[in-house]
Amino acid sequence: MVTRRRLLAAAAATTAALSACDPDGGATQSGGTAPPLDPSSWPSVREQFALAPGVVNMALFAFASHPATVRAAIEKHRAGLDADPYGFLHANEPALERAVADAAAAYLRTGREQIAFTDSTTMGLGLLYSGLRLRPGDEVLATEHDFYATHEALRLRGERDGTTFRKVRLYDEPESAAAEEMVRRLRAAVGARTRVVAVTWVHSGTGVKLPIRAIADALAEVNRGRAEADRLLLCVDGVHGFAVEDPTPDALGCDFLISGCHKWLFGPRGTGLIWGRAEAWRRFTPVIPTFTGEPDGAPGPAATPGGYHSFEHRWALAEAFTMRTAIGATRVAERTRGLVSALKDGLARMSKVRVRTPRSPEVSSGIVCCEVEGYGAAEAVAQLRGSKILASATPYATPYLRFGPTALNDESEVEATLRAVRAL
Ligand SMILES: Cc1ncc(COP(=O)(O)O)c(C=O)c1O
């Protein structure tokens, strides 16, 4: 069981790793300045970030650093808000909100009315699993491998409304997780009262990636025999696949995709989204009143929580999506895959290391989990920090040493990481 205490302990280990590396902050740039972006050049992409120099950061996927255009947008919006908060908000909000929705929709290749904006994955999961229309006795089928926020949102829903949830185990040893078997186990666990299947695209505790398209196809077969109101909805916590893998939500085949934008996308901290299929949104009732001025009937805006927000961060999401679209989702996916393969291959060659994430990109993505003989995960994280390699420990019942090479890392950093692990 993941307890809140475990979660906080693992988070604290990661935080300590980050803060101990460069007490002065070590920022290479301040504000939003950086050389102009050449989206075809990885060094140029990397230059857009004010990362501490002299360290290899393999934990950037967990909480984003902002690129220069995002920093500049935040500063610009903040200056306007500081000068005249109410006036600036009302003069600019409609256009800036629209720019965010358009940039997100262009990246996701979807309609902007299908997207709700949130503060985080956790908020998205909480809103979705609170707002889906379910009756007492309806069941949500989750898995043993989801993040705490999915399970807790479902538990709370059960307390309020008498829905139930069950967790299915999709694999026993993560490194041998197989696509077909995961689909089979999930499909076999669907019962007559199951209305929602809640899964996680890439498991942050093991690095296993689910074959979402194949799961969607298997559930579509079940749905063929069901009335519209009883149709299974496939809801995916997509945070560790979003902006590292390239399929659009439509191509994935799910009904809802929930993600933070402050992880692999490098969007503003405190941003996230829920994407939903038009028919799926019809089975959702908003939880927090919206303030959006969108026309009635646009489900994403209606599901976007209203209230005054940290608008400078929310509005700068447009720049994050625009930058990522310019780089290209497929190039990011290929680049990450190359770094991940090199890291896994190198780790697998060390007899004291057991790589727990599968080798095949069919069932793995950007997260690489492993165990080092003689070291607990938090201890390994602390030792690596001494070699200026920033990793994290998984916040789950069995903690693993975890790396997450992103498109900001390069081959020499993978090599440095391997040298440091070898030296443990
Ligand atoms: C699978 C998964 N879902 C959700 C979260 C929470 O994301 P957020 O910080 O955007 O709420 C995490 C980790 O932070 C995670 O690993």
Could you explain how this protein is built, in words?
The protein is an alpha/beta fold. The protein is 43% helix and 12% strand. It is built from 16 helices and 13 strands. The protein has helices at residues 4-21, 42-47, 68-83, 85-108, 121-131, 148-161, 179-189, 212-224, 249-252, 278-281, 299-303, 311-315, 317-327, 329-348, 377-386, 411-422; strands at residues 56-57, 115-118, 139-143, 164-168, 194-200, 233-237, 256-260, 272-276, 353-355, 368-372, 389-390, 392-393, 401-403. A seven-stranded mixed sheet has the order 2-8-7-6-5-3-4, with helices on both faces. Strands 9-10-13-12 form a four-stranded antiparallel sheet. A two-stranded parallel sheet has the order 1-11. The chain is globular. Mean pLDDT is 93; it is low at 1-28.
Write out key terms for the chains shown.
single chain, alpha/beta, seven-stranded mixed beta sheet, 43% helix, binds pyridoxal-5'-phosphate
Please summarize what this structure is.
The chain has 16 helices and 13 strands. The chain has 424 residues and is of the alpha/beta class. α5 runs parallel beside α6.
Give average pLDDT, whole number: 93
The arrangement of helices and strands along the chain is: HHEHHEHEHEHEHEHEEHHHHHEEHEEEH
Beta percentage is 5-15%
Shape: globular
Task: Tell me how many strands there are.
Answer: 13
Q: Regions with pLDDT < 50 over 5+ consecutive residues?
A: 1-28
* Share of helix, binned: 40-55%
Major β-sheet strand ordering: 2-8-7-6-5-3-4
Biggest beta sheet summary: 7 strands, mixed
User: How many helical elements?
Assistant: 16
Bound molecules: pyridoxal-5'-phosphate
Return the structural class.
alpha/beta
Gyration radius, in Å: 21 Å
